[in-house]
Write a structure and sequence with these properties.
The chain is mostly helical and about 80 residues long. The protein contains two helices and no strands. The radius of gyration is 25 Å and the shape is rod-shaped.
Length: about 80
């Protein structure tokens, strides 16, 4: 059965390959999380600006409602991810 046992070099190479792939995927996940957080922050800033426009009377209620609904959906989608 010794013929089926991998060599120490092969095990080390496999371990290194797994570690490299793990680090790559970890980096991808962190980048995706960062992008979601940036999109979420931007949507929240836009919603705040929209509220200010409505409070200042610069946009009508119908326009406000349409934009607010869209931004709310964007924020909810980002928070689910």
């Amino acid at each position: 059965m010794t013929g089926l046992t991998p060599s120490g070099d092969l095990v080390a190479e496999f371990t290194n390959a797994v570690r490299r792939e793990w680090k790559r995927r970890q980096g991808d996940a962190e980048a995706a999380y960062s992008a979601i957080q940036q999109r979420l922050a931007k949507s929240r800033e836009r919603k705040d600006a929209l509220i200010n426009l409505r409070l200042d009377g610069d946009i009508d209620q119908i326009t406000y409602k349409e934009k607010d609904d869209r931004l709310t959906r964007e924020i909810e989608a980002a928070e689910r991810n």
